[in-house]
User: Which sequence fits this backbone?
């Protein structure tokens, strides 16, 4: 069952009302979506791996779940990183189709390099350690 999609405009309005908002010089957002190209194909490190991925067919849906406590812990940790003053994350769940949103992340930081680094680090941790994605293919 899919979760209701958050409003990025509303998230930004709320972030700018946060007590730490005067410290923020940049908000950076991420919206991960289900794509039709298999992960094995787009993350391939060789032509052979890419061909193997392509042979799976197109992704039609994915089963998506996550570790809720791990996510809470990751958000709390991200708030301790240098220059980070605001962190908000939403993850979807269930059977999701191509084009459906998987994840929204909002980072508020003092300067651009801190925002970019935090977004990269947090999204990487979530994708590599906290979510389970099982792709379903057309072929």
Assistant:
């Amino acid at each position: 069952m899919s979760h209701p999609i958050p409003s990025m405009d509303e998230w930004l309005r709320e972030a700018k009302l946060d007590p730490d908002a005067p410290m923020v010089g940049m908000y950076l957002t991420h919206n991960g979506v289900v794509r039709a190209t298999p992960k094995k194909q787009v993350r391939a490190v060789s032509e052979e791996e890419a061909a193997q991925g392509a042979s799976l067919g197109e992704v039609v849906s994915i089963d998506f779940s996550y570790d809720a406590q791990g996510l809470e812990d990751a958000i709390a940790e991200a708030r301790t990183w240098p220059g980070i003053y605001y962190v908000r994350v939403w993850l979807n769940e269930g059977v999701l189709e191509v084009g459906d949103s998987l994840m929204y992340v909002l980072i508020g930081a003092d300067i651009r390099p801190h925002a970019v680094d935090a977004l990269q680090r947090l999204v990487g941790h979530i994708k590599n350690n906290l979510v389970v994605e099982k792709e379903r293919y057309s072929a």
Strands lie at 26-33, 59-66, 84-91, 94-97, 101-109, 131-137. The chain has a mean pLDDT of 96.
